[in-house]
From TrEMBL:
It comes from the Bacteria. The keyword Transmembrane applies. Its main location: membrane. The lineage of its organism: Bacteria, Pseudomonadati, Pseudomonadota, Betaproteobacteria, Rhodocyclales. GO terms for cellular component: plasma membrane. The gene is tolQ. Residues 82-209 form the MotA/TolQ/ExbB proton channel domain. Part of the Tol-Pal system, which plays a role in outer membrane invagination during cell division and is important for maintaining outer membrane integrity. NCBIfam families: tolQ. Keywords: Cell cycle, Cell division, Cell inner membrane, Cell membrane, Membrane, Transmembrane, Transmembrane helix. Belongs to the ExbB/TolQ family. This is Tol-Pal system protein TolQ.
Length: 224
């Protein structure tokens, strides 16, 4: 008599033990959440890069700083990170210049204001990257736990069988290995996205820092 086993993915999931199914459900949930943040971060970083390029073009075109400041202040919540850095630095510069004749203190104050805004902008870009890193590092181990548990159940089920054949062992092992596959499916995109986004954010951060130094030099020249 030949025993027929359906080894399709759906049947392997539905026939798995409850614990393995819970592991699979957890991994599927982590995968959905990671893909959500992957797309959110991709759009956010793309917008940040585009707005940075746009502001750099406007700033270095030789326009009036006061006009740029008024434009940035009027639409602060819709501007890019570099524009908000400029706005906070120029605001502090104007405030301190009106109160003090100490040029060094004025420039230092503007730099501190820009540095604080810079940190907020970078923190906002890096938000939820730690989640992607966690999914990428933990998901394979969660899947491996489900696999080990499933294989243990498969062999435990053969304890009362006199002669174990491949036909009897294969379904249980296949069910268990699905957990590892789902774990890798959740982990690989998260790791790739994390590395890519971390690189992109570093590049944007370098552009922000370069702008702060160049703008500080411009403000220092204006005080002379």
């Amino acid at each position: 008599m030949t025993v027929s086993h359906d080894l399709s993915i759906i049947s392997l999931i539905t026939q798995a033990s409850v614990l393995v199914q819970l592991v699979m459900a957890m991994l599927a949930g982590l995968s959905v959440m990671s893909w959500y943040w992957i797309f959110r971060k991709w759009f956010q970083i793309r917008a940040a890069r585009s707005k940075t390029t746009e502001f750099e073009r406007d700033f270095w075109s030789g326009g009036d700083l006061n006009a740029l400041f008024q434009s940035a202040s009027a639409a602060r919540h819709h501007t890019g990170g570099m524009e908000r850095i400029f706005e906070s630095g120029y605001r502090e510069y104007n405030k301190l210049r009106a109160k003090s004749h100490d040029h060094g203190a004025t420039i230092d104050g503007a730099r501190r204001a820009m540095r604080a805004t810079f940190q907020r902008e970078v923190d906002d870009l890096e938000a939820h990257l730690a989640f992607l890193a966690s999914v990428g590092s933990v998901s394979p181990y969660i899947g491996l736990f489900g696999t080990v548990w499933g294989i243990m159940n498969a062999f435990r089920g053969l304890s009362n069988v006199g002669t174990a054949t491949l036909t009897q062992v294969a379904p249980g092992i296949a069910e268990a290995l699905v957990a590892t596959a789902i774990g890798l499916f959740a982990a690989i995109p998260a790791v790739v996205a994390y590395n890519r986004f971390a690189h992109d954010i570093d590049r944007i951060g370098i552009r922000f820092e370069s702008f702060m130094e160049e703008f500080s030099n411009i403000l220092q020249r204006n005080l002379r």
